[in-house]
Amino acid sequence: MVPILCLVVMAYDEYDEPEFEPEPEEEDQWEEQAVDVLGEFFEKHKERVFYYRQIEVFHEDSFFHWVTNRALHRIIGETVLTEQEKLAYGPTINFVWHKSLRYYRRERKKLKNLVEEYSDPNVGAHLGLNGELITLEAFARKQFLLVGRHTNSYRDRVWPESKHNLDFIFEKDSVAYGMEVKNQLRYPDYEEIRRTMRLCEFLGVRPVFVVRMMPKNWVYEVRQGGGFVLILKYQLYPLSHRTIAKRVAAELGLPVDSPRELKDATMERFLKWHRKIM
User: Which residues pair with residue 181 across a beta bridge?
Assistant: First the structure.
C-alpha cells in the first residue's frame, strides 16, 4: 500500500489556559529554572503588561509552554500580578505584569486593544485559510499532485472512528501524503495529534504535521510513528493582513510574518526526508 501523510488546518483560541500534556521525565528541574528565568524577565520589563500565551511563546526555545505556564503561576503575588478579562469576541485573556507597575491599567488597555484587533473572528478565519493555501501552493510548486481534499478516505479505506477529515492528500514519486497544518501561536492539541496518527496508521500512511511550533518530545513521537514535523516557527498571515502582522510582530514581539510563499529552504527539509523514505 502507498504510504500517506495527513494534513488538516485547525483553528484554536490563542488565549485559553493550555492543557497539561504528557511530559518527559525530570521536568521539575526545568520548572525551577523557568521560575528563575521568568523572575529575571519581569525584573527587566517592569513597565510592560503581557499575556500568558505571549510569555510562553517568548520562552519556548528554553521551556515547553506548559512548563512556563506552571512557573508563571508560581511567581504570582511574589513577583507578578495577574488579572483575567473577557475579550470582545468571546474568549478570556490572562494579563500579567510586574507587581511594581503602578499604572498597569493604561498598558493593559493598549495590549487588549491590539489583541482584540488580531483576534477578530474575520482575522482568525483568514489565518486558518492562509495556512492551508500557502501549504497547498508550496507542495504544488514542488510537483506534489493533489489527489484529495477534506477527506477521511484513501483508495479502498475509510476512517470509521470519527468525522475527522484530512485536509489534503498529495502524491509524488508513488508516495502519497496527507498533511495537517496548524497555523497558530499555541502548540497543536496533543489528542488531535494522537488521533491523526491513528487515522494515518489505519489508512496505511505516514503522518506529517506542518506547524508553527511543536514540543521536541512530540516531534520525536511523530518521527517514531514514521512521520515528519515541518516546523515553520512563524504564524503566517495573508498578504491582505500584512499591516496587522507587522504590528503584532513589532509591538508584541510575537513570531508572525506575511510571506508570499513558503521558502524553498523550508520545503527542502521536507524533500530531504521524502527522498530518504522512498
Answer: 9, 210
Match domain 27-103 to its CATH number in 1.20.120, 1.10.150, 1.10.10, 2.60.40: 1.10.10
Do 168 and 196 touch, CB atoms closer than 8 A?
Answer: no
Are the beta carbons of 18 and 69 closer than 8 angstroms? Answer: yes
- 3-state DSSP: the chain helix, strand, coil percent, rounded to 5? 45, 20, 35
Which CATH class, in words, describes the domain spanning 122-277? alpha beta
- The answer to whether the beta carbons of residues 214 and 196 sit under 8 Å apart is no
The β-bridge partners of 197 are none
pTM of the entire structure? 0.88
Summarised one tens digit per residue, pLDDT across range 30-67 is 999 999 999 999 999 999 999 999 999 999 999 999 99
DSSP 49-113: EEEHHHHHHHTTTTS-HHHHHHHHHHTBTTTEEEEEEE-TTS-EEEEEEETT-S-HHHHHHHHHH
* 9-23, 85-99, 147-161, 227-241: least confidently modelled range: 9-23
pLDDT at 14: 46
Give mean pLDDT, residues 207-234.
94
Return the C-alpha cell found at 159.
476512517
